[in-house]
Amino acid sequence: MVSIVIVSHSPDLAKGVHALAEQMTQGKVQIAVAAGVDDPENPIGTDAIAIMMAIEEVYSPEGVLVLVDMGSAILSTDMALELMGSEQTTNVHICAAPLIEGAMSASVAAAAGMSLEEVTNEAHNALLAKYQLLNQSAKLPNGIPTDVLPTPTDSEYETEVEWLVQNPHGIHARPASAIVGAISAFDAQIWLRCHDRRVSAKSINSIALLDVKQGDTLACIASGKEAQQALQAFQLLAHNHFNESIDEKIDVMNKQNSANTIHQFTDIIEDEHGCLRAIGISEGIAIAPIWHYRATMPKARDRSYLGYEQEWTLYTQASDAAQQELSQLADRTAHAGSKSESDIFTAHCAMLADPDLSNQIAQQLSNKINVENAWSSIIEQTAQAYKDVSSEYMQARAKDIYDIGRRVMRLLIGEAEQKTVLTEPVILAAVDLSPSDTAQLDPTMIKGIILEQGGSTSHSAILARALGIPAITGLNKLMSRSQEGSVAVINGCSGEVWLSPTSLQLESAQKELEKQQFQKEQAQAAMIEKAYTQDGISVDIFANLATLEDADQALNSGAEGVGLVRSEFLFMEREQAPSEQYQYEFYSQIANTFGNKQVIIRTLDIGGDKPLAYLQQGHEDNPFLGCRGLRLCLQNEELFKVQLNALLRARAKHPNLYVMFPMVSTPEELHQAKSLLSDCHNALQRDGISSAIPEIGIMIEVPAAVVNAKQLAKEVSFFSVGTNDLTQYVMAADRGNNAVSYLVSATQPAVLRMIELAVKAAHDAGIPIGICGEMAGDPKLTETLIGMGIDKLSMSPIRIAAVKQAVRATHHQQAKRKAKEVLNAETLPQILAML
Ligand code: PEP
Ligand code: MG
After folding, report:
1. CA 312 – ligand 1 centroid, Å
2. Top-confidence range, 82-91, 223-232, 499-508
3. 384-410, pLDDT tens digit by residue?
């Protein structure tokens, strides 16, 4: 990286310039100062020796740019270069730019990794913005180039995103420097557009020239190999308000009434190549004719009241049938994807079984209102109650209420389920899709989905991903701008949509689709085989699961063991806790399915967002910071002992069974759990029941566990990092809260550094460490995680094929370098750029 030297007559002036440049680059660039002379009587002046020492202090083979204030500063610098000798000074440039503006522009350009020549150019152009701001019509003085505005690219694949700027002071120097830092590493042409002017997004001067104010729409446009990554990095930074806090929110924001971040984007405009850019929520390419899908709530019939008994019977019949449909859907989605997707329908089932709901119905029926009218008014009230909650996540749940409402109403009025039999493949276009709509989709006919509404965390998005259907959301006015039957192209990764593609665009999309299919087939074919890095290092690729069906699916997907059995699911869909015998059989069967491969059963992780109906927990203001996981088990010993007994018995028969405790914070908790396990073992043995103590591991998912890792590592055989929880606790950001979703990323520097600490503690103690949070299943992160020393990656079975391919593409030594680079990065956008 190019370094900077500031030469000034005045030490105070140089100090100030240094501090400003440091602030702009957050200390990324090496900057040295040579200012004043060693004469207390007359300290103003410059000293060649001091300048030479400053250059040597920050010398970099990529170059040093020296910025000088005036007159003798230039002579002293010349003399310093002479003193140094020619070999070292070939890469040292003295710059004629004004000291303050030049130093700012040069340091930002250097921090962005630009060459010495580019850094010098940026410094030379530093006055442009000031000229523009002071007098738009002023002619620039001779010598300052006017051709810094780049000519737009004519690439066919130019894409853009728009952002409504909310920063109170617009895009001034600091946000501009954040933009340059976030996007300049990408191999792409990137531009910013505002007020109909377009400038290079890699030049801080040009960005300042745009004069972007609060309330302006700023477009980021990119083309080239890494255009999508660059746009994503820009979006991420934009969501973080270019690393500034925005205290004064502007009116425009208040007008937005939706919970979804997508509404911060302005109207989506078709670019000159017919491309619309919205939000990709499920990756893949689809090419097919558009099909408009409109789901409506069936209307209550206008009929007279039949009497309480009869109306109640109609209600219970419809409700029971709906619950049956929902549990079938839950089973089906569990098979198609993983347990977490089917939980959506299990949750719908639980909402329907809520005694409060039955009470409300009963009350209305006793007021002589027929069941259909009663049902529709209760659904409306309940949905409204969700919409009124301030949590965005809860507001989004109103859709689930309408979904349940529609299902029961259809059964009440005897209307058959809307099942459209499609005879040819289509891209479904809709305003929104409920989870039930999505689950009914036939993935062989629905090639893609485009929606006007619904965020990337909506249940429809989760289901689309589980079904492997490419999907895009947030495309406003979709239904009016698309035509049924006309062939469209979507890219679920980049969020691009072509509603009327040209033959050239169709051809190129077809090629990309074939390439993706080929890669997928290759990955599928190799998924059963063990994956080694190119230099022969093996990494364990394990599965996360919750049911026996998941176990078969995991084995068939190439899982080399089970890194996480979420045992709490066994406790959830029932009216009382499962018996010891039931649990024993369940754990034994999973262990048996995997033969001699390791199976790690996590003990009950209840509490937080997973309450148990039959366990009276009492109200907690902050359930995620409350009694969950091991804490809850230690406070409910009887419940815990039943599980421990079942595990001890299963281990006696299956030596491949291991046990892991969740939410451990302190060594005392671990001691308590281990001593309870040993008491249970002794009691079983006393009763003549065969029992064996399994090897014990813990989840690292609380910051305290990372800090206590050295002490905890002495007590266990392995660590497994639960990055889903570790992220929310390290970042103090609820993983279900959209307003802080920009913080909830396991690739946040703070989270990665936590993982680094845990890896060190584990390896120092000679025990292996794995990751079983969602990040383990992201092939983009595989190289970095291997480089960080992670021994095992445990994930949803559908991710195994892609992660194994990523392992095969990794070179261990390079991975170590990559991990070091990533861990040295200072911001999330920088890390995303590297990934
Ligand atoms: C985790 O927190 O990363 C984890 C795997 O546990 P869960 O998602 O079940 O809380
Ligand atoms: Mg967890």
Report:
1. 41
2. 499-508
3. 877 776 545 556 667 778 888 988 998
377 Cβ below 6 A of ligand 1: no
Cα of 116 vs centre of ligand 2, distance in Å, is: 47
Distance 334 CA to ligand 2 centre (A): 20
Centre of ligand 1 from the C-alpha of residue 773, in Å: 5
Cβ–Cβ under 8 Å, residues 495 and 277:
yes
Q: Tally Cβ neighbours within 10 Å of residue 514.
A: 11
Q: Are 834 and 185 in contact (CB under 8 A)?
A: yes
The predicted pLDDT at position 458 comes to 57
**Predicted local confidence at residue 756, as pLDDT:** 97
In whole angstroms, give the CA distance from residue 426 to residue 449.
9
Nearest atom in ligand 1 to the alpha carbon of residue 608 is 10
Q: What is the pLDDT of residues 427-477, one digit of tens each?
A: 999 887 776 777 677 778 999 999 887 655 455 676 777 678 899 988 888
- Alpha helix segments (H runs only) across 538-597: 548-556, 568-572, 580-593
Q: Which of 9, 93, 172, 459 is catalytic?
A: 459
Mutate to test the pocket of ligand 1, among 338, 339, 631, 725 (most ligand atoms within 8 A of CB): 725
544 half-sphere exposure, CB direction, 13 A CA radius = 26
Looking at domain 535-834, its CATH architecture is Alpha-Beta Barrel (3.20)
CATH 3.40.50.510 fits 3-145, yes or no: yes
CATH class, domain 308-413, is mainly alpha
The answer, yes or no, to whether any atom of ligand 1 lies below 6 A from the CB of 770, is no
Q: Which residues pair with 491 in a beta bridge?
A: 285, 496
CATH for 253-295+420-513, options being 3.40.30.10, 3.50.30.10, 3.40.50.280, 1.10.3720.10 = 3.50.30.10
How far is 263 from 455, CA to CA, in rounded Å? 10
Mode of pairing for the β-strands spanning 217-223 and 159-164: antiparallel
What is the CB-side half-sphere exposure of residue 831 using CA atoms within 13 A? 21
C-beta neighbour count of 712 within 10 angstroms: 26
Residues 669-698, mean pLDDT to the nearest whole number = 97
pLDDT at 42: 79
Q: What is the DSSP string of 333-378?
A: HHHHS-HHHHHHHHHHHHHHT-HHHHHHHHHHHHTT--HHHHHHHH
Atom of ligand 1 nearest to the CA of 773: 3
Pairing label, strands 487-491, 496-498: antiparallel
Assign domain 151-243 to a CATH class.
alpha beta
Residue 217 CA to residue 214 CA, distance in Å, equals: 9
Instruction: Say what the pLDDT of residue 147 is.
Output: 40
CB 776 near ligand 1, within 6 Å: no
- The pTM of the whole model exceeds 0.70: no
Task: Starting at the earlier edge strand, list the strands of the sheet with 159-164.
Answer: 159-164, 217-223, 189-194, 197-200
Measured from the Cβ of residue 835, the count of other Cβ atoms closer than 10 Å reads: 13
Contacts 24+ apart (CB under 8 A), 249-255: 249/166, 250/166, 250/214, 250/215, 252/164, 252/215, 253/164, 253/166
